[in-house]
Amino acid sequence: MDQAASVFSEQGSATFVSFTPSLSARPVKFPPTRPELCFVIAQSFVTSNKHVTGPILGISLQGFHDAFFYHNGGSDYAAAKSLTKEEELRRLIDITKETLTREDGYTREEIASALQMSVPELEQRFMSRFPVRADRFKLRQRALHVFTEALRVVQFLALLEGPLHTGRTDTTQFNEELGRLMNETQDSCRDLYECSCPELDEICRISRGAGAYSSRLTGAGWGGCSVHLVPADKVPAVKEALEQQYYSKLDLTDEQKEQAVVVSRPARGSAVYIVEGGQLS
Questions:
Q1: Is 126 exposed, middle or buried (0-12, 13-18, 19+ CB in 10 A)?
Q2: With CB atoms counted within 10 Å of each terminal CB, which end of the chain scores lower, N or C?
Q3: Which domains does the chain have, with CATH numbers?
Q4: At 251, phi and psi to the nearest 5?
Q5: Does 2 qualify as catalytic in the annotation?
């Protein structure tokens, strides 16, 4: 997804990327807002080596949920796949809550039994491509995160393409609704997917307290960057709050301080320049 966005993005637009039935991307124009919106990218300077932590922090069994729901959801799961995208996701969320009821996770033996296979067969099918070291798997939480996050994407898209903001001299309510969806993503990453970290949580708290509509992690998580939806007139306050309450406590080089916070607006992605006869065309 990140690579697709870096290629297909257009100036002033978000990019709606889909992989079903094949890769596609289309620009979604950000409407004019009052106050104007900016994206602020804030680095946590926390590093998570995925090669080392992946077997421990791996958050899902690849391809498992489809198989589980197929075996246990029957016609309800098949029917959900024929609805509109938002209806489908809402139904899948309901099916997850009805089917995956264990809050404390599932053992390998329980999962294998549900799929009517042996534990070695389970490990070969779902755990051989990526190594996994775990005794219990929080399948309910992971599935709920994936489906609710997909629903938030659909809702965010509908907001951007809807008429809610048209003609208004103040779009604060619209801005806050976009922010609510992004904040819910952070909550879900922290509580259901468990891919946040204390430093990212702190950065989000500081930014929201300084005037951001929303703050959430971005990327794989457990460190790295966060993204914040901020009214343009609040950007200096957010940057100052992050400096005083977070970055001042770290031992950073001048270069790191310079790169810690980046203010961004939707920009164009990569391009190909054709050189003909020594001239760009």
A1: buried
A2: C
A3: 31-265 (3.30.70.890)
A4: -90, 90
A5: yes
Q: For each of the chain's 281 residues, which pLDDT tens digit applies? A: 889 989 999 998 999 999 888 999 999 998 889 899 999 999 999 998 755 555 455 555 555 666 666 666 555 656 656 688 999 999 999 999 999 999 999 999 999 998 899 999 998 888 887 777 788 999 999 999 999 999 999 999 999 998 755 556 789 999 999 999 999 999 999 999 999 999 999 999 999 999 999 999 999 899 999 999 999 999 999 999 999 999 999 999 999 999 999 999 888 888 888 888 777 66
Region of 105 (left: φ > 0; alpha: ψ -120 to 50; beta: rest) is left
Long-range contacts of 251-260 (CB under 8 A, 24+ apart): 252/45, 256/43, 256/45, 259/43, 260/42, 260/43, 260/45
